[in-house]
Amino acid sequence: MVVSSPPGQIAIVNNKTLQRDCLSRVLAVEFPERKILPFARLDEWNAAADKHEEVSLVIICEGEAPSDLSSLAAATAHTPPAAIIILSDSEDPASIFRALDLGVKGYIPSTLGAEVAIEATRLVIAGGVFVPAASLIRAASEPSLARQEQPGRNYPRISPRQLSIIAAVSRGKSNAAIAMELNLRESTVKVHIRNIMKKLKVKSRTAIAHKSREILRAEGYELHNAADMQRLSLDIARSS
Questions:
Q1: 139 pLDDT tier (thresholds 50, 70, 90)
Q2: How far, in Å, are 61, 73, 90, 95, 205 from residue 64 at the CA level?
């Protein structure tokens, strides 16, 4: 299926000149209709963001692990509705979920091949969310790796209705499917999901699914096994 996407420029933030130039050339070939804007540091991009309102995607390249994830919030605030992708050498689930909480739409580890990375970029441009399946499987089998929190107790008050919606989102169901399953209006489901995002302090459906794993476990909901988790990210992106 061919997915049309709005025009927009792509900004690349990478402090390594050779990598930055190579990525710029690859993206220019894969997305010829989009201008590529290279930046050496995130603060350079933040300073120039107001001059580039047409940027719809920012790719931030990191090393072993994102060095200052809190700075991503500034990048997000500067360029709504630009999407953010992190390209990193790290596949640490905690870093990935923290990035999702801050509004990142794609997390691409450098262990992935170019073809997968390009397709992940296309998915984000089309409005989806990309998370490496290997990290989801690892987090599913070792939940303690996903978050540095006390499980089960330190979560906001969630109503039974919201728990049902969280569980449905975690299964990759669309708003329309949730509305039909719970006998609600689709507009009501949207309001619930917005409120859930505020309570959990997240910005995406994927982040809801992962931040709520301990909540659902504590409330007795059935969780995904590793095989289910491998498909979860794409399912949630499609239902957004």
A1: low
A2: 10, 20, 5, 11, 26
Assigned CATH class of 9-130? alpha beta
Rounded CA separation 231/107 (Å): 16
What's the CA gap between 73 and 69, in Å, rounded? 8
Give ∠ CA 157-161-167 in degrees, rounded to 5: 90
Q: What is the pLDDT of residues 106-115, one digit of tens each?
A: 899 888 888 9
143-239 classified as CATH 1.10.10.10: yes
Q: What is the pTM of this model?
A: 0.59
User: What residues does each domain of the chain span?
Assistant: 9-130, 143-239
